[in-house]
Here is the input.
Amino acid sequence: MLKKLLKPLIAVSVSAVFFVYGCATGTKYKNKPVDIEIPAKWEALDTQKEINDNEYFNNFLDDFNDVKLKYIVNKSLEHNLDLLISAERINYAKSVLKITGADLFPVVSGGLNFSRSGIVSEVNNKPYRETENNTSLNLDISWEMDLWGRIKALKKSELVEFLAVNSDYESAKLSYGAMTAKAWFSAIESKLQTRLSRETLESFEKSDEIITKRFRSGLSGAMDVRLVRSEKLAAKDEYIGQEKNFSESVRALRVLMGDYPFDTINLPDNLPVIGKPVPTGIPSDLLKRRPDISAAKNRIISADFKTTASEKALFPSITLTSGAGTSSSELKNLLNVNYLSWNAGSGILMPIFQGGKLREDIKRNSSFAKEAWLNYQKTVLNAFHEAETAIDAQSILEKRESVLKDLVKEAKASLDKAWDSYLAGESEIITVLDSRRSLIQAQKSLISVSAQRLVNRVDLYLALGGGLKHNKSNGNRIEK
Here is the structure.
């Protein structure tokens, strides 16, 4: 029976396919290469090799050997509203995928109906009223045969979009984890700068006491006293400003952790020490590791499948329908097979004229596919820019830190020599003050560059496609 229904429909449909197939003009971008020349090695490095072991990229937090850092990052990931929104997008994409896939299966519906009617007829010129009851039980099945793969193409499109949304989530998690780690480093840096400014103020206060005593003894002039007190007041202003910066950095960190913005937190006394060097691998590794690139690539494939589905919408659609049910004036007869009736049928729907809607839909999806391909190129180019910049900055910051460490040592020795010379009456106070300013500036720059190295290390891991493990934050605490 079913074969008899299908044979003429398929024959007509195949003929129609040959008629409209030439109208399908979707462009495929899935395998189209990017218009970017990818070099064999990083321009900012002299040597590098391909990495087969990716353990270095599993969790960038391991590189800093800081238990508290892991705690605050994990805690922030649990309270980040942007991540919660991204997680809901995954659930939404999963539901869309299931909804689209459901179209591949028959639609089955059932119904139970009850009606009661009063009929008036004339008997011997008199009205006669009769009441009728009717109860029916039915089961209906309809199924669109996906002969050309239109529904399958839509399902594949949503499947790949689901993968892209998952990659978006991973990218957002990395970004937010990196933001929190940088805020942690910033808070520690601010603490160190505040401590330095306090020590600087204390040193000027001691100098003020010494020079004031020398002035009273006639060993120093009034100008020396004024100059030192001026520097002391400037140091006090600097200290107050650093306290404000420290408070703001801690409040910002607290908010990222999902806490009330208190201005106190238990921070270490020094910045974390950077571990072993990051193996950079080769540039093409980025295309495999970075989740933002993976998401952009999957959206090309998703758009291609949508283009394919819109092309297949030009083809005829074949629908099979069938139904069975019982009907009786007595409820007890609904399950009696003697009251069973059934029907079966099939239909073909050939799009002939829809005002150009179907062809424009093909053009629209083709445009989306090209846009996705262009966005993929943009994402890849930006990834290479971030990686080259972070690799280059890594070497520069290492050299700066080394130079500043030597500069701090020399500046300290210079200050000690200038102070001894001043106390011996061999030089002026201005020489001491200049030496102290040089030391303070060198110390501030060293703290800043050391923090920049940590921030750049995070940027480097992310640029190279590093990962982030999210563990529950229970067990460790950071007191106020």
Remarks:
- The chain has a mean pLDDT of 83.
